[in-house]
Amino acid sequence: VMGDGLTAVKAKMQEIKAKGFDASNVENALFGTLELCNEMLERGFKFGKLDLYRSEASDFIIEGDTLIPPFSAMDGLGGNVAKQIVEARKAGEFLSKTELRKRAGVSQTLVEKMDEMGILGNMPEDNQLSLFDDLF
């Protein structure tokens, strides 16, 4: 939501506020984060996308007027997995989604979510090469 701009952040805040006491604990925690996002956007900052090779486990990175979110900002990705990704990438680039899952201990569900968010770019499913890829 934070990467979708000020309007999206305010809309989500209104949605949670409208639920009142029916809002879940997760939504209430999200509301606090959205308040911070709103403040940063109002001050002219932008939010970038999560980046497999630049995002930190739990700290935002400031690049000019853009804030790059940490892995822990991703819904469903906990602090331990975030740290494992940062540690695993020190060994070099991830050549495939399978390698990301194995080296960083990321679940299939999170890899799929990262792929949907565009974090993995054109990363292939596995490392296997096919002799026939270039023939057709």
TrEMBL record:
PANTHER family: DNA POLYMERASE III POLC-TYPE, DNA POLYMERASE III SUBUNIT ALPHA. GO terms for biological process: DNA replication. Pfam families: HHH_6. This is DNA polymerase helix-hairpin-helix motif domain-containing protein. Residues 48-125 form the DNA polymerase helix-hairpin-helix motif domain. It comes from the Bacteria. GO terms for molecular function: 3'-5' exonuclease activity. Gene3D superfamilies: 1.10.150.870.
